[in-house]
Design brief:
The protein has 358 residues and is of the alpha/beta class. Helices cover 35% and strands 17% of the residues. The strands form two sheets. An eleven-stranded mixed sheet has the order 1-8-2-3-7-4-6-5-9-10-11, with helices on both faces. Helix 1 packs across helix 4 and helix 10 runs parallel beside helix 11. About 5% of the residues have low confidence. It binds adenosine monophosphate (AMP) and magnesium ion.
């Protein structure tokens, strides 16, 4: 399939014409990749089961991994969600458009293929002018997972989408690099206590402040954390970790259980005090380089979580492009909610291969 690649970085007549064309493709059941403020999305008409099925094919995504439905107007929630609690109203007013996805019981008209077979639907209004205009022009809610091949790091630059999706979809819209860089916070509002199913840049503290009630993380998100408390100085073997994973509670967001964000390179996360980690890094790097391997170091300024989120996926992809064999990643502070969101991605990218430095 020929893929039309269109630059929409400027807001002018040409871009609006491209968005018109992209909207028509979506309306007709086709796929369009487009930028949002979090990561690039791969969109289809959320109410057209056949169109949505083709997302799974293009991405190679397992069909029980539900998609987020993107809207441009809160009124569209009416055709998607069976209930609209007061909490959803408050959160939408405070955080939409923005990196918050709300999970609610779904209306019958939402195809089960869109929700991965679940009776709930995940909804978000992206904070991106072109994305909002595209949804408006399409005239329907747009189901859009990240526009990467399943398992690969999420795309935060047009070039990432082109690398993964060329030849697989009819159109790719290339905008500026994604502002946030990691995916939205997914919040389940189907139970009494709001539950974060996927951590993001929008923290439980910020959500709790708006709701006036406590917000917790899905216990399944801590599974990796428990494993890391193993004070081993060796990187844990994957088999051992997968064994532990079996004993962890199943995540409520089905997508969280899949192999995710994986670079081609082997990746190890180093945790411990700054000095100890630095020494261990140096030693490991020298050891591996002595065997002829190319080693990359993934390091972010301590405490600068917004920058780390912005750069995270792009750095993983850059290491792969440079032919790096091993990525040594310095852990960030998981006690901070934004740090926790970044660590969620970092640990998955490394298939939970962690070296705890004493
Ligand atoms: P992605 O589209 O790649 O950003 O992934 C979407 C994430 O949202 C995955 O982790 C899904 O499992 C999660 N998600 C989407 N819809 C639902 C839902 N109805 N219930 C729970 N999690 C959902
Ligand atoms: Mg994804």
């Amino acid at each position: 399939m020929d893929t039309k690649i269109c630059d929409i970085t400027k807001w002018n007549k040409e871009t609006l014409a491209v968005l018109d064309e992209a909207g028509a493709i979506l309306r007709d059941g086709g796929l369009v990749a487009f930028p949002t403020e979090t990561v690039y999305g791969l969109g289809a008409n959320a109410l057209n089961a056949e169109a949505v099925s083709s997302i799974y094919t293009a991405k190679g995504r397992p069909s029980d991994n539900p998609l987020i439905v993107h809207i441009s107007d809160i009124a569209q929630c009416e055709m998607l969600a069976l209930t609209w609690p007061e909490s959803a109203d408050k959160l939408a007013a405070a955080f939409w458009p923005g990196p918050l996805t709300i999970v609610l019981p779904k209306k019958e008209g939402v195809p089960t293929v869109t929700t991965g077979g679940l009776s709930t639907v995940a909804i978000r209004m992206p904070d991106h002018r072109a994305a909002l205009e595209l949804i408006k022009k399409a005239g329907c809610p747009i189901a859009a997972p990240s526009a990467n091949l399943s398992g690969k790091p999420s795309p935060t630059k047009g070039a990432h989408v082109i690398a993964d999706m060329s030849g697989r979809i009819p159109m790719i819209l290339v905008g500026d690099d994604c502002k946030v860089g990691i995916e939205s916070t997914v919040l389940d509002l189907t139970d009494e206590t709001p539950l974060i199913l996927r951590p993001g840049i929008l923290t439980p503290e910020a959500i709790a402040e708006v709701l006036g009630t406590p917000v917790s993380f899905d216990p399944a998100l801590y599974s990796g954390k428990e494993w890391n408390e193993d004070p081993s100085t060796e990187a844990s073997a994957n088999d051992e970790i997968l064994e532990k994973e079996k004993k962890c509670p199943a995540p409520k967001a089905p997508g969280m259980k899949y192999k995710h964000y994986a670079p081609k390179a082997e990746m190890i996360v180093l945790k411990g005090s700054a000095d100890a980690v630095q020494q261990a890094l140096k030693k490991l790097k020298e050891e591996r380089e002595a065997t002829g391997q190319k080693v990359g170091i993934l390091f972010f300024l301590a405490g600068d979580f917004a920058q780390a989120a912005h750069d995270f996926f792009a750095k993983l992809r850059a290491f792969d492009e440079d032919g790096v064999d091993l990525i040594l990643a310095v852990a960030m502070d998981e006690a901070d909610s934004m740090g926790f969101a970044i660590m969620n991605r970092m640990l998955k990218s490394a298939s939970y291969k962690v070296m705890q430095i004493k």
